[in-house]
Write a structure and sequence with these properties.
This protein is an alpha/beta fold. Helix content is 28%, strand content 24%. It has one domain: L-arginine/glycine Amidinotransferase, Chain A. The two termini are 24 Å apart.
């Protein structure tokens, strides 16, 4: 099965993240190269993330080959603190993975009429940076089989973190990721746009430069994923990564992304609001520059889970900016410094499964 079966752009539709969800998919951290100095600490923060999700909805954790360890780390260790609802909502799934970044290789769930469909992007670990990734490549097919839904190979190399959509058919992407020669060297922008429109049911695509013109979120290894740079909070509002420091080496790249976002949104949406979401100051931890961005928040049915990086002023500032943008959801501030050593945070670690109806 492939997208060639579906000639129309309206066959599929990807719901925005704030639409009703039935579950969130995650992958248990198992890669000792990703967290070479702090795997246990990262797992502690991962468990807190799973618990917060399970307070709202089902949390399905891929942990094939590590189910006993995952059960100990996520459940057994915290049974005296978890509600019955949380325990029931945490499901350990016997599907193995190479690494924990489920956003990028788990299915991108779309709807076709009243049915749920898995869009299966070709995944090559961000341009072949981190082999092996053979198990991650198989996740979308296996998840679709487990759910009994159709799995549709998209035909291009992409990752879920490279895609940001609202409920009106507007998609945000970056050139530095999707047009990178390490993803789709034989395809041009028009060809990639055609696949994205068929796969996701979008009408218009806004291309930002990402990292093309300079570093944006330093330490990021995705070639400028959009979920570190700009996120919809509703159909008309976008928060974007920013720094007020004109001497910050990230400033030029961030400014050019902001300017391009502003230029395109002004011509496409008269009601658009663009709100700066400042990055924390540089964080050096475990011998790394952490790619810490508050844009990597996660929406569930009731909550917005906001990464906190142990920098009190900027952590609090991010919460103050985001809180009024989600009047119908609670904001939960959760620690993410240990997880971000792996070069990602909450959004990178998760993929939402929308409700079918």
């Amino acid at each position: 099965m492939s997208l060639s079966k579906y000639p129309g752009d309206d066959q599929f539709r990807m719901p925005p993240e704030w639409a009703p969800q039935v579950a969130t998919w995650l992958s248990f951290p198992v890669n000792g190269d990703t967290w070479s100095q702090n795997l246990e600490e990262a797992r502690h923060e991962f468990a807190a993330l799973v618990h917060a999700i399970a307070d709202d909805q089902i949390a399905r954790v891929l942990c094939g080959g590590h189910i006993e360890t995952a059960n100990q780390v996520i459940l057994d260790r915290y049974l005296d603190r978890l509600s019955q609802k949380q325990v029931e909502n945490i499901q350990l799934v016997d599907i193995p993975t190479n690494d924990a970044w489920a956003r990028d290789y788990a299915p991108t769930f779309v709807k076709s009429e009243d049915a749920l469909v898995s869009i299966d992007w070709h995944y090559n670990a961000w341009g072949g940076k981190y082999p092996p990734f053979d198990l991650d490549q198989q996740v979308a097919t296996k998840v679709a089989g487990l759910l009994g839904i159709e799995n549709v190979p998209a035909g291009i190399c992409a990752e879920g973190g490279a895609l940001e959509i609202n409920g009106k058919g507007t998609l945000l992407v970056t050139r530095s990721s999707l047009l990178n020669t390490n993803r789709n060297p034989e395809m041009d922008q028009a060809e990639i746009e055609a696949v994205l429109k068929r796969s996701l049911g979008v009408r218009e695509i806004i291309w930002l430069p990402g990292d093309q013109t300079g570093p944006t979120v330093m330490g990021d290894d995705t070639d400028g994923h959009i979920d570190q740079l700009a996120r919809f909070t509703d159909d008309n509002t976008i928060v974007y990564a920013w720094t007020d420091d004109i001497d910050d080496p990230q400033r030029t790249g961030l400014e050019q992304n902001r300017n391009e976002l502003k230029r395109q949104m002004e011509t496409r949406n008269a009601h658009a609001r663009l709100i700066a979401l400042p990055l924390p100051p540089a964080i050096e931890y475990c011998d790394l520059r952490l790619p810490a961005s508050y844009c990597n928040f996660l929406m569930t049915n009731r909550s917005v889970l906001v990464p906190q990086f142990g920098v009190a002023d900027s952590d609090a500032r991010a919460l103050a900016i985001l809180r009024p943008l989600f009047p119908s959801r609670r904001l939960l501030a959760l620690p993410s410094r240990e997880l971000t050593v792996g070069l990602g945070s909450f959004h990178c670690l998760t993929q939402q499964q929308p409700a079918e109806l």
